[in-house]
Write a structure and sequence with these properties.
Helix content is about 25%, strand content about 25%. It is α+β, with helices and mostly antiparallel strands and about 220 residues long. It holds the Pfam family Autophagy_act_C.
């Protein structure tokens, strides 16, 4: 778990570490392009954020056509292929946030997804986005308000306002996150670490744990 000062220090140190790192590997990219944001009036409500823009495919026949994720493979019949409507790329804007949970005292991942006009996309489009690793959604129950696992006491994904911005978002429930991170940290030799290095490594381990469900390498 992290206190508010520890969370602030971990985030700013991680941003500094990766902002000028020349490495094109996917693992490093997941930790780049984040920025630190403070509340406009009140201290102690800072958070990390970044914006990811990607394209998805949409048929042009009518506005009622469903969007087709560019990562989803389709295998149409020959007749269907001949009659298919050409598709055009549509821009999707993914806002990502890392916020400290006041209840669980761990970082929590918040996000929102919009089209190029700023209109929020529905849960169906969110589930088809490349943000989620598809195996994570297997066996889950989807409602208009979130995603749950039948055996879990907490939802996997829920709706909620951003704690600092107050804007509608979705978030990955932080229950159990601290235990996962501490398990990773227990396997690491921390001899000679400074407090700043420990905090950065803790946050890196958090990204590793949450990254088992989410794709930060967009």
């Amino acid at each position: 778990m992290l206190t508010r000062p520890q969370f602030d220090a971990a985030c700013t140190a991680l941003i500094s570490k990766y902002s000028n790192l020349k490495d094109d590997s996917p693992a490093v990219h997941a930790l780049q392009d984040w920025s630190w944001n403070e509340h406009r009036k009140i201290s102690g409500f800072g958070f990390m954020s970044r914006t990811v823009i990607y394209t998805r495919r949409s048929k042009t026949a009518s506005t009622d056509d469903l969007c087709v994720d560019e990562f989803e493979e389709a295998f149409p019949d020959d007749d269907d292929a001949n009659l298919s409507t050409p598709s055009i790329p549509e821009i999707s804007i993914l806002q990502q946030y890392v916020v400290l949970s006041a209840t669980f005292c761990v970082p929590t991942f918040y996000f929102s997804l919009h089209d190029s006009t700023g209109c929020p996309l529905g849960l169906g489009d969110i589930l088809k986005s490349p943000l989620f690793r598809h195996f994570v959604l297997e066996g889950t129950e989807v409602t208009a308000f979130g995603i749950t696992r039948p055996e879990s006491s907490f939802p996997l994904i829920s709706q909620g306002d951003h704690p600092t911005l107050g804007t509608p978002c979705w978030y990955l429930h932080p229950c159990g996150t601290s235990e996962c991170v501490e398990e990773v940290m227990s396997e690491v030799d921390r001899t000679g670490w400074t407090e700043e290095l420990r905090l950065v490594r803790w946050l890196e381990a958090w990204f590793m744990a949450v990254g088992s469900a989410l794709n930060f390498r967009l």
